[in-house]
Amino acid sequence: TALMHAAYNGRLDIVRFLVEHGANINVKNSKNATPVIYATSNEHSAVVEYLMEHGADGEGQDCLGWNPLLIAAQCGNMDIIRILLRKNVNLNKQENSGKTSLMIAAENNNLDLVKLLVNHGCDVAIQDIHHHTACVIAAYHD
Hints:
This protein is an all-alpha fold. Helices cover 51% and strands 0% of the residues. The longest helix is centred in the first third of the chain and has 9 residues, at 12-20. It is elongated. It comes from Neocallimastix californiae.
């Protein structure tokens, strides 16, 4: 859709126009991706913020189970993560292999993000499909 393309390309002006004229802010493509997932994937924080302020589903998951928080954790984009935290998204959502945003931060040795997520209440005991917690993952990637 036009909204997905605008979000993907970081065109806040077009995103704003389309939303103001009735575009479905939570439209999904064949892979279950939404405009906020596309904006997050390409690290367009202003677009993510606008979409979230106008009712985007910050917890929607694509066909692989990835949601905006998981994607932002993979990118290490603290601005987008803070936007999502302000909207109280579920910090413990898991993608299809069971990884949480905390596990992804640990895997990428992103200590600042690990601290931020733990301080906001991430569950450190959640296990992925291999029965690994974020602490075990951090040890593997140290």
